[in-house]
Amino acid sequence: MILYEYPFNEKIRTYLRLEHLFARLFTLMDRTDAIDHHFALITLFEILNVGARAELKPDVLKDLDRQKQALSAFRGNPGIAADVLDRLLNQIDDCHALLNNTPGKLGQSLVENDWLKSLRSRTSIPGGTCEFDLPAYYAWQKRPGQQRQSDLRGWVEGLIPLFNGIQLLLGLLRDSGTPQKMVALGGQFQQNLPQGRTFQLLRLSLKQDLGAIPEISANRLVASIRFVRHDADDRLHAHSADTPFELVLCS
Prior knowledge:
The protein is α+β, with helices and mostly antiparallel strands and 251 residues long. It has two domains: 9-172, Orthogonal Bundle (YacF-like); 176-250, YacF-like domains (YacF-like, Sandwich), CATH 2.60.440.10. It has nine helices and eight strands. 22% of the residues are buried.
């Protein structure tokens, strides 16, 4: 099965982008080759670019507060496991406290790091990080892999509260939806969305062997999906076969 996700608003779009970038960063950091750590730094700079919005930290804190209030309403409900609820609420409190206690703007120390600043300004230039342009960076790449890993962990440490908060919020959002079996007749699907609910994320799963790729568009009123296929001519063509898939709307 292949899972596709489509955000309904810019805030969730930002959360998903950051989740994607952090996953790539952690994968690259776990390796020890200099080339992997080079792309780990480029990914770190991408995270700083995406996370540069001044309202990002307040947005995550507000969403954590909102989730805590919503979940607290289930206290005393006989159908809810009290220990699981308490554990989740404690997790929200921990994420909120760590993020709230992070001083200043997220990643500010990295932005003000002169060595990283000089490297960041060169990464947008094709081949701009060659040894004759940045000998100090070239020397850093020649250090033992474990030492470079230690440096990377130190630079990323201040961003971990943001990652933890976004990871928790997206997990709760994904768990809020109920899977539905659907079929796109002739590769086309459209569904009017229930009114009175604000959906934030659409999740679509389908079998990989179908060879179908969903092109999704959605707003607060309707979700539309058109399936295409990637053919041998390296072009996308309409996938006209009836296509079964699983749909989850998360609010």
